């Protein structure tokens, strides 16, 4: 066709599905490798206007920009691989926790038949008249545990699984709340409960997740203690 100039080298770089299986992936079509860059640079030098040659600093800037882009891409790929390896390693370590109990920041616990539950409460300063209220799934209070006075810090507690009338509470989930007098005012204190790990999951935005019996999943990073 008249008026249209062609260049054999540029034409040779056009993607042809039947000639190059490397670019079967559409994403690969937009990638310019180092060899291609230097071929283009050489072609640019061959086709430049002799009266206005490319300045050295321009050429160096082009080479530097390509090298930096290639380096950043390589670093990103290595980081992704590192993150994947770390997740796999964490999952392997977390798998050893299956069947064990962990302490997690929740006000709920799963009561197993014939067993009790344990937890931990905390207070930023001395507290008086500390009480733990235990409610079943309907919201009815089944037991109140009197702790009394508590110094600043943390304190473990245990519920033997018996209700106020002395009978065994049915197996299932129960909620716990802690109230106390702190500096003359009634406040609710933070609580953590022990839960049994049933399985471990990986993948997704949450990373490694521990699946707790009756309570669902929780991130591995939220575990504060392993029993």
Structure characterization notes:
The chain is an alpha+beta fold and 227 residues long. It folds into two domains: 20-94; 105-193, Immunoglobulin-like (Sandwich). Helices cover 26% and strands 34% of the residues. The protein has helices spanning 8-12, 34-47, 56-95, and strands spanning 101-104, 108-111, 117-123, 127-135, 141-150, 153-159, 172-182, 185-189, 191-201, 209-212, 216-219, 225-226. The chain is elongated and about 95 Å long. It comes from Idiomarina rhizosphaerae. Required for flagellar hook formation. May act as a scaffolding protein.
CATH architecture of the largest domain: Sandwich
Low-confidence regions: 1-5, 15-19
CATH class of the largest domain: Mainly Beta
| Domains (count) | 2
CA radius of gyration is 33 Å
Beta percentage is 25-35%
Total count of helical runs of at least 4 residues: 3
> Total number of β-strand segments?
12
Average pLDDT level: 76
Cα(first) to Cα(last) distance is 80 Å
Order of secondary-structure elements: HHHEEEEEEEEEEEE
Can you tell me the overall shape? elongated
Largest sheet: 7 strands, antiparallel
Keywords: Bacterial flagellum biogenesis, Cell projection, Cilium, Flagellum
InterPro entries: FlgD, FlgD/Vpr_Ig-like, FLgD_Tudor
Function: Required for flagellar hook formation. May act as a scaffolding protein.
Family: Belongs to the FlgD family.
């Amino acid at each position: 066709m008249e008026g249209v100039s062609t260049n054999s080298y540029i034409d040779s770089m056009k993607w042809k599905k039947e000639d190059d299986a490397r670019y079967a992936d559409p994403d690969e079509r937009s990638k310019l490798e180092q060899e291609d860059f230097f071929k283009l640079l050489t072609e640019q030098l061959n086709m430049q206007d002799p009266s206005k040659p490319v300045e050295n600093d321009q050429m160096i800037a082009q080479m530097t920009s390509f090298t930096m882009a290639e380096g950043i891409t390589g670093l990103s790929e290595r980081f992704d691989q590192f993150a994947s390896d770390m997740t796999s390693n964490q999952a392997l370590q977390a798998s050893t926790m299956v069947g064990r109990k962990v302490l997690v920041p929740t006000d709920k616990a799963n009561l197993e038949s014939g067993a009790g539950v344990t937890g931990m409460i905390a207070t930023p300063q001395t507290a008086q008249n500390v009480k733990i209220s235990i409610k079943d799934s309907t919201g009815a209070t089944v037991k109140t545990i009197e702790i009394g006075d508590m110094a600043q810090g943390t304190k473990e507690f245990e519920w033997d699984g018996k209700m106020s009338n002395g009978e065994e509470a049915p197996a299932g989930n129960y909620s716990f709340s802690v109230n106390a007098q702190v500096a003359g005012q009634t406040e609710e204190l933070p609580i953590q409960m022990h839960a049994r790990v049933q399985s471990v999951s990986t993948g997704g935005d949450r990373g490694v997740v521990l699946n707790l019996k009756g309570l669902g999943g929780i991130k591995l990073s939220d575990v504060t203690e392993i029993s």
